[in-house]
Structures are given as structure tokens and as C-alpha cells.
Amino acid sequence: MGTISASLPYLARNFPARRDLVRFRLSNSSLSSVRCRRRIGSSRTSATSSMAYERELEIAKKAAALAARLCKSVQKVLLQPDVQSKSDQSPVTVADYGSQAVVSFVLEKELSTSSFSLVAEEDSGDLRKDSARETLNRITELVNDTLSEDGTYRVSLKPEDILVAIDRGKSEGGPSGQHWVLDPIDGTKGFLRGDQYAIALALLDEGNVVLGVLGCPNLPFDGVNVQDNYSGESGCLFSAKIGEGAYLELLDGSKQAKVHVSAVEDPAEASFFESFEAAHSSHDLSSSIAKRLGVKAPPVRIDSQAKYGALARGDGAIYLRFPRKGYREKIWDHAAGSIVVTEAGGVVTDAAGKPLDFSKGRYLDLDTGIVSANPKLMPAVLHAVQASLTENFDSVGRL
Ligand code: AMP
Ligand code: MG
Predict the structure, then answer these.
(1) Is the CB of 275 under 6 A from ligand 1?
(2) Would the pLDDT of 189 be above 80?
């Protein structure tokens, strides 16, 4: 049971034995789970180990929910046609920085340690310019309003406090210690269009993702396949903690459910998720993979890690992502989403079937793309990926 890398030759040799389930789980979350329990102390009970990271998860959920509230208020204004043009980049700038400042503030207030490491997408460089003064004032106002709204925090932060909060996100991460990982708005293009986006926050411990939350303000609670005239509730908060499963609740904390990936075993019955933006992931390549697998359903295109959330609750069965050659994936684009999926029973690997390694700093160092599905589907998906990558070597022009 020592194998932790699910390489393609390995898959070819060992599937369809039921060892797939064991090996894949060991390669991802269970490996971390083992380490986590070892660290806590082998003499303790599983009840004790289930308490690991419990407080951190509550803090992460609170931070993501507050940041989601800020983003929602900005998007609401943005989408009023008479108020602002969608081509104006300032709303997304305000929401991006504001979301990062809110999460950073909540972590600082709630964590028992005064020094923590945060690896986040934004820094305050541009905001410190004279020309950005008005933007900074707007962000400051928004952050204060958001933090004070439900009476949890009585604060009146100054612009300088906002800059400091944002710059807490400059950590480089790495293989040792704990690092929070944040994408304050994942899927900014979706945010601007009024579509899907996510606030993604995760915690790394000794290089492994141990918890993650995805705040998805526009995602329907009842699944992505609901009709266009959906009148149900939207606003999902996915959360997962190592070894404890994945959960979904409404962003306001009501309506909770444990989630699980799709149990579909026949690729022909599976539907797949990919980026809305073709510039982020080759639609041609995923279409070729889907065809090879016999997938009948059309692609489900969603911005951001909301895709991982939708996959985790079985709205679709396969996740495919193939950026152009040379693109370096950032850890904040996958840390939270990957643990939500693995804790929901799924597998997340690169295109070669290797687990994602979050211990290398701000970037993921991976082979070609990212693939996810349940353990039963994964071998067929990886085979199709490899076959299409080989066949499309020239025509897609990615390799
Ligand atoms: P998605 O909506 O799933 O396509 O992912 C959104 C994320 O893609 C953003 O947060 C960016 O970090 C990332 N991104 C930006 N440019 C590219 C690119 N050229 N290729 C792949 N991903 C990108
Ligand atoms: Mg992102």
C-alpha cells in the first residue's frame, strides 16, 4: 500500500481491481489524514482526531461567508446597467482587494496565534499609488461595512489597515508549517459577467491541504442543472476537513447537507465540467476526450472553483482543465476545491494521474492539466486524456 502516485502505467496494470479505491484515497486525502493523526498522537481516539482543525474550519467558513457578502454587494451594483459599465475593471478590483482584506482581518482576529502565513493572490502595490486613493477609500468603506453589518466586529479600519491586511497574503507557502491559501475572487471573468465565481480558502499543514472552503454566491443550492427560471435559493458554502467528508450549506448557514461525488461508473452517462473561458482550458481537447469516452451530455461550462463544488455534490461526474502550454497553475486556484472533491469521495490528479502537490510554494508543478472524477471513472478518464493528448499533439497545438 505504499504507492502514492497513480501513474498511467500503474493504472493500466492494476485496474480494474478494486484496489483502485484504496490506492487513490491513500494517494490524496488519506495520506494527509494519516500524517495528521500521527502528528496529533497515535494514542488519542478518533474522536480527538476529528477535532483537529475544527476551530480553523469554523474561522475559514466565517471569513469566506463575510468575503462573499462583500463580493455580492459589489456585483449587485456592477450588474445595474445604468450604474457601471461591465468593461470597467474597477468593480472587480474593489471586490478582489476587499475580499482579501476581509479574510485576512478575520484570520488575524480569530486565530489564537498573532502570526500566521497567508498565501494569497493580491498585494497592495497598485493600491498604494496616488491614483488609487479613491479606490482604496471605497475598499475601506466596503470592508468596514461588511465586517460591522451583523455586529460581529465593531471596527473602523483606516486605509493603511486595509493595505496591511492585504499584504499579509505575501507568504511563499512551502512544505513545512501551516499556510492559509486564498483566492479572494476566483473567476473574475464570471464575476464581471454576473455568472459564477468563488471565494476559495484552504489551509496547508506540512504541505498537505487539511481543510478548504468555497464560497459560491451565485451557485444554485439545488444543483447547476436547475432550469433557467430557477426560483430556489442560491449561495453555496462548501467545506471539507481532512478525513471528515465534505459539506454544503447555504451561505447564510441554513440548510446543511453532506455531499458526495457522482457514483456514475459508465463514462457514457457522465457529464463533464470545464472552464467557461476557452483561454483558460482547451475546449477542443476536452471535447476530444469526451468523445473518446462516449460522453453524451454537452460540456457544463462554469467559471471558478464552483466547478469543484458542483463536482463534489454530483452535479456532473468529470472535471477537465487544460491550460495552454507554459501556464503555471497557482495553489489558490485548486487547494480548497481539491479537498472539497477528495473529501466528497473524488480523486484529483494532474493529466498523468499524479496527485497535486501543494508544498512547492505559490505554484503547482504539474504535468499538462488537471483531471477529477470518482475513483471508478478515473482510470478511463485518464486513459482518454492521455490518448487525446497524444493524438492532438499537433492539431490542438498545446504540446
Ligand atoms: P476558471 O474559471 O476555472 O477558468 O479559472 C479561473 C482562474 O483561471 C483564475 O482565477 C486565474 O487564476 C486562472 N487563469 C487566468 N488566466 C489563465 C490562463 N491563461 N490559463 C489558465 N488559467 C488561467
Ligand atoms: Mg483564481
Answers:
(1) yes
(2) yes
